[in-house]
């Protein structure tokens, strides 16, 4: 073991589990690609001001959780704590908003928050996100929600629930905010929470402490304060989801930690995860572009948590197809001549699209077969002097243990046939 360990709140992705992470990322990305979302990749750090502005000065992320540093040149940069602000910045910088709308983009990468680490909550974590920018059509909200639901379904998760709410807009939200503030001021709350009433009262609704929750039962709910336009918009989203067969639960207390959210807001939760149950979330952020100095650009998006989705798969005991397997074929040469021949066959198999590995280091039969087992391969190809003089190799099915000689020039086609 080395003197060094991965930093607190982080972990290494190593085989075989890393394959599940890749499969989860791929399933989440695939649904977006299928729906015409193009891939966007932004830097892992940005000007600190972008997140202060785009995530919100009063959010927990900005006040407590950012990894901010000063460069040697004296600039303040921050490791990205989330993806949306960077994507909007990139869209505006490259004038994508001047082309066909909505601009549909997806991304996949690492995010950084200085949180108190626990199961499902890390300081370095992985998200796949999708954003549709420049459209105020409820069908876009519905499309984006359906894509996330589809990703979880494709992965085989069953215990996923979709929670839905609306946060109103710049017309009705302030009225609700004032009513909520008035209600909260009458409660018995600690000093920190009282301070929150002024800067970010909606976040108090999100407080998980039982003594706070108990006092919130009669809190005013946004549904009673929506303006006609927001009410109609939300009703349409709800009915379109129902028509589309997407089950959801209305959750009037669902708020998001980020200040730029308006109207539709949603979260996917998994019941097998305990406290950190959110496996993805998102919503509309009609005000963000202007907040960043751009034109009005009503937009909606989500970010799905890869790490927690992997935990959810484990909780349900679901194996992601293709993620637990090693290579298709492992080659075991016995003797120098076989080493050269099999190494060539391995190249041939790979070129033919069959994944293949090789017992390096001149191991004996026992050691090499152990390596084959460990590799998770479906088949071993074994050959010694006697096989070579008969122009065959031995093809061993590592599941059944059955072994047959196969002519060398027919090995690739035989394996391809068996694998299909
Ligand atoms: P958020 O940007 O906070 O809405 O996060 C979107 C999703 O990312 C959440 O639903 C989680 O699945 C995941 N996520 C957020 N923060 C963390 C974290 N610290 N560790 C692991 N996953 C996280």
TrEMBL record:
It comes from the Bacteria. Pfam families: HGTP_anticodon, tRNA-synt_His. It is found in: Cytoplasm. InterPro entries: aa-tRNA-synth_II, aa-tRNA-synth_II/BPL/LPL, Anticodon-bd, Anticodon-bd_dom_sf, His-tRNA-ligase, HisRS-like_core, HisRS/HisZ, HisRS_anticodon. It catalyses: tRNA(His) + L-histidine + ATP = L-histidyl-tRNA(His) + AMP + diphosphate + H(+). One of its GO terms (biological process) is histidyl-tRNA aminoacylation. One of its GO terms (cellular component) is cytoplasm. GO terms for molecular function: ATP binding; histidine-tRNA ligase activity. PROSITE patterns: AA_TRNA_LIGASE_II. Its EC number is 6.1.1.21. L-histidine binds at residues 82-84, 113, 127, 131, 256, 260-261. It is an enzyme of class 6 (ligase). Residues 23-321 form the Aminoacyl-transfer RNA synthetases class-II family profile domain. Belongs to the class-II aminoacyl-tRNA synthetase family. Homodimer. This is Histidine--tRNA ligase. The lineage of its organism: Bacteria, Bacillati, Actinomycetota, Actinomycetes, Catenulisporales. The gene is hisS.
């Amino acid at each position: 073991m080395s003197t060094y360990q991965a930093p607190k709140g982080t972990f290494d992705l190593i085989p075989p589990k890393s394959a599940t992470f890749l499969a989860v990322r791929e399933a989440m990305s695939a649904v977006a690609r299928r729906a015409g979302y193009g891939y966007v990749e932004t830097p892992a750090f940005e000007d600190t001001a972008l997140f202060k502005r785009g995530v919100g000065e009063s959010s927990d992320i900005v006040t407590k959780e950012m990894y901010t540093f000063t460069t040697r040149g004296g600039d303040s940069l921050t490791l990205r704590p989330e993806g949306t602000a960077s994507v909007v910045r990139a869209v505006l910088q490259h004038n994508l908003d001047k082309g066909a709308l909505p601009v549909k983009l997806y991304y996949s990468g690492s995010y950084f928050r200085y949180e108190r680490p626990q199961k499902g909550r890390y300081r370095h974590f992985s998200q796949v996100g999708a954003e549709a920018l420049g459209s105020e059509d409820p069908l876009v909200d519905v499309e984006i929600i359906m894509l996330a639901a589809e990703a979880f379904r494709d992965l085989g998760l069953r215990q996923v629930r979709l929670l839905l709410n609306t946060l109103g807009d710049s017309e009705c939200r302030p009225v609700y905010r004032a009513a909520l503030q008035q209600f909260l001021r009458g409660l018995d709350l600690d000093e920190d929470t009282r301070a929150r009433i002024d800067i970010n009262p909606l976040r108090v609704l999100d407080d998980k402490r039982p003594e706070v929750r108990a006092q919130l039962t009669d809190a005013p709910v946004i549904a009673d304060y929506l303006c006609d336009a927001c009410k109609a918009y939300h009703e349409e989203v709800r009915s379109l989801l129902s028509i589309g067969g997407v089950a959801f639960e209305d959750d009037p207390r669902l708020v998001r930690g980020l200040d730029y959210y308006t109207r539709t807001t949603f979260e996917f939760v998994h019941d097998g995860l305990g406290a950190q149950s959110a496996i993805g979330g998102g919503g509309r952020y009609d005000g963000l572009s202007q907040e960043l100095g751009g034109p009005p650009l009503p937009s909606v998006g989500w970010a799905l948590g890869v790490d927690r989705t992997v935990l959810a798969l484990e909780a349900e005991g679901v194996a992601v197809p293709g993620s637990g397997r090693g290579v298709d074929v492992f080659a075991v040469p016995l003797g120098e001549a076989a080493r050269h021949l099999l190494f060539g066959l391995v190249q041939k198999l790979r070129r033919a699209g069959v994944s293949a590995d090789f017992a390096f280091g001149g191991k004996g039969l026992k050691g090499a077969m152990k390596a084959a087992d460990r590799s998770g391969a479906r088949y071993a190809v074994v050959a010694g002097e006697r096989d070579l003089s008969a122009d065959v190799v031995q093809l061993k099915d590592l599941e059944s243990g059955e072994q047959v000689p196969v002519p060398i020039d027919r090995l690739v086609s035989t394996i391809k046939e068996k694998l299909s």
